Amino acid sequence: MSERTITLSRAAFDKLREGRITIRLADSGGRRVAVFPQRVWPSARVPALQPSVVLNPADLDLIERDPEGLVCASTDGTTGWTVRLA
Questions:
Q1: Of the four, 20, 22, 64, 74, which is 20 to 30 A from 47 by CA?
Q2: Are 71 and 82 in contact (CB under 8 A)?
Q3: pLDDT tens digits for range 10-61
Q4: Where do the DSSP E strands lie in the chain?
């Protein structure tokens, strides 16, 4: 699993915190990634958009608190990212 970085702007982070939107961003390698709040994908279903990451409220709290961000994996387990605030 290769690790890359997803950097969230404050505006994108706030939209995820609201819990009603999916954000598509480029990671540090230029690959487009869909980032979902858990409220959009509350079950174990894998989102149709790949690659994708699902973040729960505790994940968002950690991302907001820790400048190093949160290490997480894609929903299909093939890619890893560090998700952090800009």
A1: 64
A2: yes
A3: 999 999 999 878 899 999 999 999 998 887 665 556 556 678 888 999 999 9
A4: 2-8, 23-26, 32-37, 52-55, 70-73, 79-85
